[in-house]
Amino acid sequence: MEALASRRSTRVYTPRSRTPRSPTGSPTPARMASSSPPVAGTSWTAEHVMAVGRDSTDRLVEQPADTPGRYATVFSMRAGEAIAFVGIVDVCVLQGMATVYEQCVGARWQRVYSPTSHPLASIRAISDDKETGEADDGEIDAIRALWAQRAGGVVVVVRTVQCGLESLGRVSPHADVFKLRPLAQRLRAQGGAEDSDVEAEVRLNAVLGMPGFAPVLYVTTDLQLLRVPTDWTQVLERSAQAPVQLNAAFAQVPPVYVVAGAQGLGKSTFARLLTNQLVSRFGRAFHMEADLGQSEFAAPGALTLNLLDSAVCGPPFAHVGQREPYHAVYLGAVTPKNDPDRYAAGVAQLARAYHEYPAGDRVVPLVVNTQGWVRGLGLDLLYTLCEHVRPTHYVQVHDMQGDGQPLLDFDALESCDPQVTLVSAVGGDLAAGRGQRLAAPELRTLALLSHLYQAESTSVSGIGGMQHIERPVWASHVALAARRPLAVPLSDLIVWLGDEDVAASQLPRALNGTLAGLVCVARAPGASAHEWSDAEIRGLRNDSGLGDQAAAELSEQGARILLRSQAKDLSIPHVVYGHPNLRSTTFTTHALVRSIDVSVGVAYLVLPPIASALLDRVIGLVKGPGAGAFGIEVPAWAMVDGGYRERAMGASAAANRRPRRLARAAKRQKFVEQADETNVGIQEAPYLSVEVDE
What we know:
The protein is of the alpha+beta class. The chain is built from 15 helices and 38 strands. The strands form 9 sheets. Strands 3, 4, 5, 6, 7, 8, 9, 10, 11 and 12 form a 10-stranded antiparallel beta sheet that branches.
């Protein structure tokens, strides 16, 4: 291993984090707190600022800074200055070059999410002599005209956004993650001495702040600042500049990066930044998620392969479930511990789908984010992943406390000789224990709640035939029990039970109130797979529902299938004791089984918006393992009708007045809109029923 590391690895043992300067005229961190000094988060002074609003004719105009209802703020920065903030905003650059999450921002709106539950984003001025190009939005041109004849430098525009995600605290114990507490309160919470100069942050927010955008003057211990280590920057710069390799036939070999390391070191953050760099360079890039518990673009429980053509600026829960996967495999668990064979087969299928992607003359790289299980069986699965993916670059994140050696010996793998790079764990605030530092189950809860409470959006685009919601919206004020579900005939579905041994007669009870994987007929996941035409997909169904042959073709070999014709009940679904066919089917999104009405043979499903354009390809549901087998479940807070805070406080008051007795908390949803616009009654949802006696 010593020879291997010295021959093919690059190591930087003492990275220097890029810390912003203290603001001019503001107190130094040492004066602000006596026990744990805060870190400077903003190094910008309010010299040139313009507030933008709308007049009575809805035209953009300049307005005084203290005018309520500000629409946008324009300000200039000098190269090297930075502004950290909390909130949700659209950012663009009118002049010069600036970065957010290490991603260059130009003359087009870039949505940025910066919650307190994750490392804070910063707008960093890089250079003031770069041209931003033509704007792709009329509002940007209007704002540019208002700023004309003002100061130069790097000119940044920040536009307020009200998308509903900022209200996720209504249904989550992690409330107000997009709201910044006053600096005086933050200092008192960390035990520091309050200083009169904390008014500097108040003045800064008065100049720049607006709804959804709160600049941070100092990063106290309840916050964390995203500070990219120097060795990360070196790898990112090389990925943006290194020439593309050629094979023996002088054909271009797309870069394939595998990012590995133990849990909690920043693998997902590094993979996200690397993907953004590759998208900026090549125009498109694939991202493969091999971490079942902390997925980047889908809710937990699935292996996904996503095709991206735009940067992602925010934590996973801000963009989960907004892209149709190029191909995906649903396991329904947060770890492959109980079904490693299925995990390995899924990884192999995603790797095959990538290598068979018809890129033509285009170079489309791949970034693979691996799981943090790197010992025993987890290490064997990492070897298996690399065998199928065949990386050209292997990046390992380590915490400096180990032996500093690669986890894998690539000499033991055939046709796999990547460039090995070791980088340090994300530094600064995370290493010092700053910030909220949510545990893995809490991050999964955030991702699932964000996924379930998304609302329909009109901003939908596509890349390579894959649907993508560009401007998502959330509706946390509408409880899941009050949402209109989609009525799907059971005869049009296949239900895959995996290794679960559930009697067919108990299937409605087993599915009721669960999160299931929504499975569709795959488009064309590679040259070796059958390409399903629209006519063939329609031909899978007949007048009585899904045909027997379809259930056999779309299930894995060796699966035990209970056909509807054998059960002599055409109102039930095909029941498969096994898994879907990996090549001919693909996981799309999660479906909440609101209830099942056996009397009419209908399942009522609550689906995220991304499923709306895919209904003609929906073929069935996959039931994952239960909670005892690390399965995915509906978060408890999502089942509380009426909001987390109100119900939690009401339950506490009731507990003080009388012995607790919780029974049948679900409401009846009397009407649901079917495809034919008729109203039908829905039975009470038993999954919300629980009874506790003391």
